[in-house]
Amino acid sequence: MATKLKITQTRSRIGQKPRHRATLDTLGLRKINDITIRERTDVLEGQLRLVNHLVRIEEAKEA
Questions:
Q1: What are residue 45's phi and psi, to 5 degrees?
Q2: What is the Cα–Cα distance from 4 to 18, expressed in whole angstroms?
Q3: 25 CB-side CA count, 13 A
Q4: Which residues contact 6 (CB under 8 A, 6 or more apart)?
Q5: Among 39, 46, 48, 54, whose CB has the most other CB atoms within 10 angstroms?
Q6: pLDDT tens digits for range 27-49
């Protein structure tokens, strides 16, 4: 079974580079405390590495 990650935006996008803002848009994060759940993939890992100072990453609990 694929691992799912819970991604929460913890810091503002204001003042960030356009590339970082675009990555947050791609992840579906628009405001502080927005949450998205995604499957762990290599592409996602690269995106999270780029914006790791703006988000909190946890493993999602299985429902």
A1: -60, -40
A2: 27
A3: 7
A4: 35, 36, 37, 57, 58, 59, 60
A5: 54
A6: 999 999 999 999 999 999 999 99
Determine whether 22 is exposed, middle or buried from the number of CB atoms within 10 Å of its CB (0-12, 13-18, 19+).
middle
Q: How many whole angstroms separate alpha carbon 51 and alpha carbon 48? A: 5
Structure tokens at 40: 């762990």
Residue 49 three-state SS: helix
Tokens 């988000």 sit on residue: 55
Task: Note the pTM of the prediction, 2 decimals.
Answer: 0.90
Kindly give, in sequence order, each residue whose CB lies less than 8 Å from that of residue 62, ignoring residues fewer than 6 positions away: 4
Q: Which residue has tokens 């994060």?
A: 29
Return the DSSP state at 28: T
